[in-house]
Write a structure and sequence with these properties.
Layout lengths: L20 H12 L7 E10 L3 H14 L5 E6 L2 E6 L9 E3 L5 H17 L10 E9 L2 E9 L5 H19 L13 H11 L2 H15 L22 E7 L2 H13 L4 H17 L3 E8 L16 E8 L6 H17 L5 H8 L13 E7 L4 E3 L3 E6 L10 E8 L2 E9 L5 H20 L13 H9 L13 H11 L4 E5 L2 E4 H17 L7 E4 L5 H13 L2 E4 L6 H11 L3 E4 L4 H4 L6 E3 L4 H4 L17 E6 L9 E5 H15 L6 E4 L7 H10 L4 E4 L8 H11 L3 E5 H14 L9 E5 L5 H10 L5 E6 L9 E4 L2 H5 L10 E2 L3 E6 L12 E7 L5 E2 L3 H7 E3 L9 E11 L5 E6 L3
Parallel strand pairs: 4-5, 10-13, 15-24, 17-18, 17-19, 19-20, 23-24, 25-26, 26-27
Antiparallel strand pairs: 1-6, 1-12, 2-3, 5-6, 7-14, 8-9, 11-12, 13-14, 15-16, 21-22, 22-32, 27-28, 28-29, 30-31, 31-34, 33-34, 34-35
Helix pairs in contact: 2-4, 7-8, 7-11, 8-9, 8-11, 14-15, 19-20, 22-23
Amino acid sequence: EGIAEKEIEPVLRDRELLLSFAQQRLWFIDQLEPGDPSYNIPTAFKIKGDFDPEIFKRCIQTLVQRHESLRTTFDARDGKPFQVIHDQTEIPLPVTDLSHLPMNEQNQAIRQWVTDEARQSFELSKGPLLRLRLLKLQSDQWLVVLTMHHIISDGWSIGIFIDELARLYRSYQHNEPNPLLPLRLQYADFAAWQREWLSGEVLERQLNYWRRQLGKGSPPLQLPTDRPRPRVQTSNGQHLSFDIPLNLSRRLNDLSRQHGATMFMTLLAAFKVLLFHYTQQKDISVGTPIANRNRSDIEKIIGFFVNTLVIRSDLSDDPSFNRYLKQIREITLDAYAHQDIPFEKLVDEIHPERDLSHHPLFQVMFLLQNIPPKTIDTGELKIESLEVENKLSLFDITLVLTQGPNGLKGGIEYNTDLFDEGTVKRFCDHYIRILKQIADNPDIRLSEIELLSEEEYRKQVVEWNQTSKDLPRVGIHRLFERQTAETPEATALISGGQELTYRELNERANRLANYLKANNIGSGSKVGLSLERSPALIVALIAVLKSGAAFVPLDPHYPQNRLQFMINDSKIDLLITQTDFEPIFKGLSVPLLFADSLDKELAEFSADNLSDPHFHPEQLAYVIYTSGSTGTPKGVLIPHRSVVNHNLSVQRIFGLTANDRVLQFATVNFDASMEEIFPVLQIGGTLVLRGKDAVISADDLLALIKEHSLTVLDLPTAYWQQWVAELVTSGQKAPESVRLIVLGGDRAAPETVQKWNRLAPARTRLINSYGPTETTIVSTAYEATEQDRQSALPVNLPIGHPIDNTRVYVLNRNLRPVPIGIPGELVIGGAGLAHGYLNRPDLTAEAFVPDPFSGGKGERLYRTGDLVRYRKDGNLEFLGRIDH
């Protein structure tokens, strides 16, 4: 036997009257935040005609006497609240005359009055919890501003109030008696009945359904926000309206009928599909209000009856929209059949994990409502309802659709601490696009639904990837040789007390390259390099490239088994090392060449540049191994083409000149070292090698900068953050000589960026870069702006735009572009792509996929596995690794 079948009887008023479950929740909220206007219900309506404020006031007092809710306040004893129904309550009716104002000033004043009234608080223990104000606009035109606290009213109740007000005014104006039939029940009777009957077997039956359906609730909905979510949820809100074309409304109506669904079910299903595309979450709960007036004897009572249902559904297995609509239909009908249990009671019983930053059980709300008549005509008066925006939002997003004779209209109420208006506008546009696609093809799979408009697609796929630049078909070493010819006596390299000019460095590299060629090292060969950071290392890097071979960095400080693996896997033809590392490699089956004992032999070889008539840009430049943090280390095959493109691009982005003195910081086993070495040696600057120590302190770095007047630092983000922290602790400023800091390898903590902005000279540039090894060192870059520098808040640096001849895409699991602001996988194409993984065709095929955007040119894309999103300005924001 359901609760709705039990008779509601009036209760005696000689005892403390308990609150309904819904009222009790609002009372507790008010105890925590007294006077919070989030639960005000603001309404406004225009009255045209021969209006008499005195008659109007008499009507109001009649309504207050008729409905106990309108003269109810709330008190407590021992922390337990109860209703206090007053015999009489006088409702003030202040009048403000705006008729003397010009139209534009009058409209502005109206908006201000309505907003102020909506945000003015109520005191639940004193009341009245109903507030009215009359604004005189013209002699025959008035505006009524009505505000009620939700604890005594709901949306349905407002309709009752205005309808009965109109009927009373018509009668009183003609000196006729009150036309309204007496009410058998009042809200307090309903509250007592609800408390008594919603217990025992009835309660348990309802709860069992919701326990099965909700469990502890869906995971919080991770909507992509424009700003970090506050630790405590706010209710600052705004409203945005949009239209759904009449023809589309009709087609959706037809679709609903064909599938035995209501329009509500179809529109809710489409809304959930949109949330799925925005979050990639398959378990999604949405709240929806229900009038909860399932008995005729409570239909005409003013009070807080509305209940909230949680519609939880599963979007796994990529169903068709038809199939998903069937699921929504069944879940919704079941929810209606168990609608009697108040949401507040449900939360108490289920005990979801509470987090002050978001609402329990759901974070978004959906409702479809029929448009009530906007105008009531009493004969002498026309009463026209107006939309009121109270600039509050109880949820992250509430989608309100209204159904009227001209089709559907939509509105989004959104939390302004989370979302910008432009973001919500795109949200609405994407919802309409989903509605069009399901109307066109109800059998469409959810993954096949396209959110992007043609304009959005063109912007993201084409315009933001306009990075084409001329790329010379030469080797890395040839760019170094060209610079040597221009500035042979300029200082190329400084290491400790040793300096080498460009001529000296080039000649040493040429001698070693000729030696290698004489020993059958050339195109197709791979040469391992295991040297300390020293001039010999730089000479060897250049020499191997000049010989036509590719180098394989091998850190001598790596564990023996890892070195063994890389040597065996890469099948190097030769290992260049130094004599003190001989014990490390002695047992390995590879020829050794000791760079520190070759001087006599090399003196016999030519110092002239080598010719390479068979060179091709796709020739292998180096093989560099990944860290192996996600499994076995992989050798990444990087061609000359990729490195040349990188070098020329960062020279432009960094603004490198012959006057720059660049620190060589990273170990050569990390490809960041290539960014420090080659671009500066191709522009005529000076490369300064730091010492052999694995760790360099902040003081040591400052001393090195001062000693060599360093201008450019290319630092791992984690090291830079530690360095900034030590500078702050020691009270030191960033050095004046440094004009550019380049970061990479990790997310820059916003707090550190803020500290750096206070430490660094205004002219010091800060560039945040990003790039996997598979796309050659750097693929995107972002330079901190003046706005970033001057921000009083911590700055989250994006990773920026693609570098020259590089294309980036933010894609979903089906490799389709996702909208601005929506997280997706970063997928990269262009000149920076590696050939793939050495000896791993399976992994190469998995990570390097055909490019669907290349127009059939057979190009490839690299799937990074990194989660990013586009900002509105086209900059990419790094979010982390994709959790598989």
